[in-house]
């Protein structure tokens, strides 16, 4: 486990050196998600919320994409994109960042249950991959609003809900619960 502050830039540099085709896309997306997550956290008014952890973990949530085949963002790995969360967890656990690695695994969709993994035939381990801590939920929630592909645009609540619903109704239901709990992000253009 990490015992001190984590520098997300240094971790990104370790896995995405200058010249890596996905570096800037991943960095830009990670820090936009961080800004959204911190804005959501600040408005949530939750006592004892670990804001520092959000600032460390949110930029790293997609670190596993480098091992996936996602040419639209510069990644030509051998794994399907859906595995980027578990790959990221393994990468960060190897760097003794277990808590940060959990964020990688549980941010995919609105988290994944074993039933959803089986029902959708996903090439993932058969285990619960749901955000449990409020910090994990906030990062996963914020991630739904910013796209790495398509020019890095922001999505509005109805579009996010529709995208999740297309995969599984349970995904959309978890997202709706986050909307109720945390409210819509207040960034310009994101209001429903």
Layout of helices and strands, plus pairs?
Blueprint: H1 8-15, H2 23-44, H3 51-57, E1 69-70, E2 75-76, H4 84-94, H5 98-106, H6 114-120, H7 134-143, H8 157-167, H9 169-182
Antiparallel strand pairs: 1-2
Helix pairs in contact: 2-3, 2-7, 3-7, 4-5, 8-9
Characterise this structure:
With 192 residues, this protein is mainly α. It has one domain (8-182): Hypothetical protein af1432 (Orthogonal Bundle), CATH 1.10.3210. It is built from nine helices and two strands; from the N terminus they run αααββαααααα. It has helices at residues 8-15, 23-44, 51-57, 84-94, 98-106, 114-120, 134-143, 157-167, 169-182, and strands spanning 69-70, 75-76. A two-stranded antiparallel ribbon has the order 1-2. Helix 2 packs antiparallel against helix 3, helix 3 crosses helix 7 and helix 8 (157-167) runs antiparallel to helix 9 (169-182). The longest helix has 22 residues, at 23-44. It is globular and about 40 Å long. The N and C termini lie far apart (39 Å). The relative contact order is 0.15.
């Amino acid at each position: 486990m990490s015992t001190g502050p984590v520098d997300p830039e240094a971790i990104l540099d370790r896995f995405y050196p200058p010249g890596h085709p996905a570096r800037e896309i991943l960095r830009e997306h990670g820090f936009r998600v961080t800004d959204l997550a911190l804005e959501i956290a600040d408005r949530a008014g939750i006592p004892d919320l670990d804001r520092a952890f959000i600032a460390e973990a949110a930029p790293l949530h997609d670190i596993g994409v480098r091992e996936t085949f996602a040419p639209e963002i510069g990644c030509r790995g051998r794994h399907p994109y859906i595995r980027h969360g578990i790959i990221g967890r393994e990468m960060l656990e190897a760097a003794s960042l277990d808590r940060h690695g959990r964020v990688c695994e549980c941010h995919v969709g609105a988290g994944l249950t074993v039933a959803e993994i089986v029902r959708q035939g996903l090439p993932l381990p058969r285990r619960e991959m749901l955000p449990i801590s409020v910090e994990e939920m906030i990062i996963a929630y914020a991630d739904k609003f910013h796209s790495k592909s398509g020019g890095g645009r922001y999505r509005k609540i109805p579009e996010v809900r529709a995208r999740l619903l297309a995969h599984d109704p349970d995904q959309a239901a978890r997202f709706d619960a986050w909307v109720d709990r945390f409210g819509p992000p207040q960034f310009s253009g994101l209001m429903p």
